[in-house]
Specification:
By secondary structure, the protein is α/β, with parallel strands linked by helices. It is built from 9 helices and 13 strands. α1 runs parallel beside α2, α3 packs across α9 and α6 packs across α7. Bound molecules: zinc ion.
Length: 318
């Protein structure tokens, strides 16, 4: 697999072991995993993210790497998936919905603390890469990977290469405006990015929960709303139908631009089974084609896709 998705901080070296550590820096938890040359998982760790505390975040990541290396008794390469991206221009994080990470020099600081080069990529890009490599998008030429959870991130992988882009924002579809907005969707909710009516403000888990409350439902999670819809709750069903229609509009615009073979959903809301049947039945009006063969599928590697993709920012033996 060839990957051109990273920004490397620190001097390039090679590691003989071929073992790669991936770190998934999330808003609520930090996961770490070591994979062998043949793809086997050798060790894994998971801990809460020290929210709002940058210094503790750097230390926590370093501790996970050292802990895994102590367990496997060797050193490894380290790739990190981050919310947002590292600006190619400044070397600092931007576009993170964990907003306290924005403008921090995580690349330099972590590389110095672990005394080695470290590669970074957007977490959704890591997710898409993992699923395109040996997940639900394996064998596909063009894969659009979407994480629908606390936010709405996405990554584009073409022929096993992440499309990073000149501004390192390739795939950031969650901050496009929701296409074909209805009157009651304009201007739409305010997004943390400063815009109104971003796709993320309609398709994230908190957005679905807000939508349920606004329709007279209780304050429950997105996955619980889906469970209630299954049990026959008419409000939950109506809210989910509107959610599916919005997702169809949002993905239809992607199909027109990059025409993916497969769209893979990850994140908490990817556990809502009915999306895979219903959304493709709703997206045709928004796609410029007489038929749409694009598949919408759940992630194969579930929660571990982001951390696996981060590990694969390095090639074995690199
Ligand atoms: Zn936004």
């Amino acid at each position: 697999m060839i990957v051109h998705a990273w920004l490397t901080f620190g001097q390039d070296v090679t590691t003989a072991s071929g073992i790669r550590i991936g770190i998934d820096l999330g808003g609520t938890k930090i996961a770490g995993l070591a994979i062998a040359r043949d793809g086997r998982t050798l060790a894994q760790r998971r801990t809460a993210t020290p929210q709002g505390d940058y210094d503790a975040t750097v230390t926590t990541i370093a501790d996970i790497v050292r802990g895994i290396e102590a367990e496997i008794a060797t050193t490894a390469t380290v790739g990190v998936g981050i919310p947002g991206t590292i600006s190619p221009a400044t070397g600092r994080i931007k576009n993170s919905n964990s907003t306290w990470l924005n403008q921090t020099p995580l690349g330099d600081d972590l590389s110095r603390m672990l005394d080695r080069p470290i590669r970074f990529a957007n977490d959704a890009n890591c997710f898409a890469l993992s699923e395109a490599a040996d997940g639900a998008g394996a064998g596909a030429s063009i894969v659009f990977g979407v994480i629908v959870g606390t936010g709405t991130g996405a990554g584009i992988v073409i022929e096993q290469r992440v499309l990073t882009g000149a501004n390192a924002i390739g795939g950031e579809w969650g901050h496009n405006p929701l296409p074909a907005p209805r009157d009651d969707e304009r201007p739409g909710p305010r997004c943390y990015c400063g815009r109104d009516g971003c796709i993320e403000t309609f398709l994230s888990g908190p957005a679905l929960a807000r939508s349920y409350i606004a329709s007279g439902g209780a304050a429950i999670t997105a996955v619980d709303i889906a469970a209630r819809a299954r049990a026959g709750d008419p409000i939950a069903n109506r809210v989910l139908e509107r959610y599916e229609e919005r997702m169809a509009r949002a993905l239809g615009s992607i199909i027109n631009v990059i025409d993916p073979d497969v769209i893979v959903l990850g994140g908490g809301l990817s556990n809502i089974d009915r999306l895979y049947d219903r959304v493709p039945k709703l997206w045709s009006p928004y796609v410029f084609s007489d038929r749409v063969d694009t598949r919408l599928v759940p992630a194969k590697h579930g929660d571990s896709s982001g951390v696996r993709g981060a590990a694969w920012l390095w090639q074995p033996g690199e």
